[in-house]
Amino acid sequence: MPAAARTTINPLSYCAETVRKHDPDRFLLTLLAKPAARDDLLALYAFNYEIARTRETVTETRLGLIRLQWWRDALDGIFAGKPPLRHEVVEPLAAVIRKYNLPREDFETLIYAREFDLEDKLPATLSGMVNYADFTSTPLLKLACRIEGREVAENDARAAGIAYALSGLLRAVVTHARQRRCYLPEDLLRAAGTDQYALYEGKEFEKLPPVVKAVIDAAKTDSKLLPARMATMYLRQIERADYNLLSSRLALPPPLMALRLWWAA
Fold first, then answer.
1. Cβ count near 141 (within 10 Å)
2. What does pTM read for this prediction?
3. Alpha-carbon gap, residue 79 to 171, rounded angstroms
4. Intervals of the chain under pLDDT 70
5. What is the predicted pLDDT for the residue at 5?
6. What dihedral do alpha carbons 40, 155, 72, 179 form, nearest 10°?
7. What is the per-residue pLDDT for 59?
8. What is the rounded CA–CA span in Å between residue 71 and residue 12?
């Protein structure tokens, strides 16, 4: 890591450790942010991790909805000006929301989007996958930009958010399949001669390249925001692997990614 990207993040911070372990790409982006904003960004990203993992931590839809409602209730208290619940993420998040006067609607969108995960349905079309990427990523990016004091156009934020989320979904296809989850478009899978159930059994990944290419084409953007630049590096890496998501070339991050992002920052 270049010296300029080193951080004074509290090594005992629960939020910092959570993001470092479970969301390393956003942790890297945090290290490249303004030092004064880093801990605040980590509180935001830790919240996102908590709601994003709902599907993995519950055994039935009802329990997932209860978990997400718990977060809505926690936000109700924060935005009502009440003392936050005693929780490793809620308390620092409350401080961040009040410090930057963050808008509630972006948090609501993020929570609402995670209800889709509980349905165990894949998007019917590529447009549906793009919408899912938009709802789960763009509000978070907009909140992060607000914390960093960046003025970002809505279309630029949306392009970067979608690119970042789609690149992540592609890289997680194998992991999601093991969890019996799939976010690839149903119609494109069918056109490629396969379906989600074959992927759940670890089969027919060789049929995915045209599906992967279509998703990459939808993700491509000229946005100069760092999440978009990171996504572009990952997407190009997949292209160089001939759209093979099982390629060993995808086992490591793109070469010099941290350095290239630091230079861009």
1. 24
2. 0.93
3. 36
4. 1-12
5. 46
6. -90
7. 86
8. 24
Q: What pLDDT, on a 0 to 100 scale, did the predictor assign at position 120?
A: 87
pLDDT at 9: 52
Q: Are 25 and 230 in contact (CB under 8 A)?
A: yes
| DSSP letter for each residue of 25-91 | HHHHHHHTS-GGGHHHHHHHHHHHHHHHTHHHH-SSHHHHHHHHHHHHHHHHHHHTTPPPPS-TTHH
Residue 3: the pLDDT is 44
- The one-character DSSP state at 153 is -
* pLDDT, tens only, 205-263: 999 999 999 999 999 999 999 999 999 999 999 999 999 999 999 999 999 999 999 99
What domains does the chain contain, in order, with CATH numbers? Answer: 12-118 (1.10.600.10), 120-127+147-246 (no CATH)
Instruction: Kindly write down the DSSP assignment for every residue of 112-149, as one continuous string.
Output: HHHHHHTTT---SSHHHHHHHHHHHHHHHHHHHHHHHT
Rounded to 10 degrees, what is the CA torsion of 238, 239, 240, 246? 40
Which residue in 168, 145, 175 sits closest to 157, CA to CA?
145
Spatial separation of the C-alpha atoms in residues 97 and 147, rounded to whole Å: 9
What single-letter amino acid sits at 180? R
